[in-house]
Design brief:
By secondary structure, the chain is of the alpha+beta class. It holds the Pfam family Polyketide_cyc2.
Length: 143
């Protein structure tokens, strides 16, 4: 897989609150650009399917790795393109350092030729996810 982007931010909330909000799939469209709805079946565990609607189409991701309260990796496959989004949280006192890395693999002709364009599109669309997440979680009062 080739790296599409890596971003990080610091969120002025404890790690437990950030994790709870990050894995509240029903609320994810508030900070995931282009996502209209999302839910997990059966929940936040390895192998779970995240079904979401984005840009008028139903899509799926799968949780491929999980360290509850700390890290989560999602894999999405669309034909010859596989994307991996990895979220990592680290406690920093009452704050949380969050990092998102996105990698993509393209297979077969002509997809391999389009790999750079796909990575650029991912970077343009999704590299603001953590900044948007930080904005949303910072302005809301969480339970």
């Amino acid at each position: 897989m080739k790296r599409a982007f890596e971003v990080s931010t610091v969120i002025d909330r404890p790690i437990a609150e950030v994790w709870r909000e990050l894995t509240d799939w029903e609320r994810a469209p508030r900070w995931m650009k282009g996502v209209e709805s999302m839910h997990a079946d059966p929940g936040t565990e390895v192998g779970a399917t995240l079904a979401f609607r984005a840009r008028g189409k139903t899509r799926e991701s799968h949780i491929s790795a999980l360290e509850p309260g700390r890290s989560l990796t999602l894999i999405s496959e669309q034909g010859s393109v596989t994307a991996r989004y990895s979220y990592l949280l680290e406690a920093a006192g009452d704050r949380t350092r969050a990092r998102l890395t996105a990698d993509v693999e393209v297979r077969g002709f002509p997809w391999t030729l389009l790999g750079p364009l796909i990575r650029t599109a991912m970077r343009r669309t999704d590299s603001r996810q953590l900044a948007d997440f930080r904005t949303v979680i910072s302005r809301e009062r969480l339970p």
